[in-house]
Design a protein that fits this description.
It is a single chain. The chain has helices at about 30-35, 50-65, 115-130, 135-140, 145-155, 170-175; strands spanning about 5, 10-15, 20, 70-80, 85-95, 100-105, 160-165, 180-190, 195-205. It is of the alpha+beta class. β1 and β2 (about 10-15) form a beta hairpin. α1 crosses α2.
């Protein structure tokens, strides 16, 4: 069961164990714990962070992005103690540029169903808060800048993933939620691992299938 609330255009999603919410500046120390872990970052597009300033720069970009809290979320584990409920940031998941999916999870929480729980919450949310291009035909037929901006914010026909072929865990969860492979390409980007290849996957909007 997923519940959601929206404030100032930002959504918060709650599952039995997790809260998916917009990123905020105070997340920097939890994010640094994630982004400095070599195992978590093995197939990320950058090397593990060695300075918190690197994490701050990444987080600043996420906080200021138009997709923060609408298509891109922090994953927070809900915990309860004598002082009440509090959260621990354990990952992030969402469409970092509005269409391409990116996600990572703290190593301490692997193999416990947390990322599946997050996917099951934010994917339906993204589809219900966007529209297909066909249904937005009135916007595509105009040259009005403001209306085109509305279209860019609301229209989404598919979600794209670019994954290192060695990253079996990420490919597995994407396929579990209906992503299908659309192609492969060698030597697409260079990271701390050297040149890496890509496998491309796509998830079409349900009514577009």
């Amino acid at each position: 069961m997923v519940s959601s609330t929206t404030s100032c255009g930002h959504s918060t999603l709650r599952t039995p164990r997790l809260t998916l919410r917009p990123a905020r500046g105070s997340d920097v120390y939890d994010f640094f714990e994630l982004f400095s872990d070599p195992d978590v970052m093995r197939y990320w597009s950058t090397a593990p962070h060695t300075e918190i300033s690197q994490t701050q720069l990444y987080l600043d970009g996420m906080v200021s992005a138009r997709w923060n809290g609408s298509r891109d979320f922090v994953i927070e584990l809900r915990q309860t103690d004598q002082q009440g409920e509090k959260g621990k940031v354990i990952g992030k998941a969402g469409l970092w540029d509005g269409r391409e999916i990116g996600f990572l999870l703290s190593r301490s929480y692997w193999h416990q169903g947390f990322m599946s729980e997050a996917f099951a919450a934010f994917l339906p949310h993204i589809w219900t808060t966007t529209s297909s291009k066909a249904s937005m035909g009135s916007f595509t037929a105009t040259g009005n800048v403001e209306e085109k901006d509305v279209e860019a914010t609301m229209v989404l026909d598919d979600i794209f993933a670019d994954v290192d072929p060695r990253n079996d865990a990420s490919i597995g969860i994407l396929k579990k939620f209906g992503f299908v492979e659309t192609g492969r390409k060698a030597r697409t980007y260079a990271t701390h691992l050297g040149w890496c290849d890509s496998v491309y996957l796509s998830l079409k909007r349900p009514e577009c299938n």
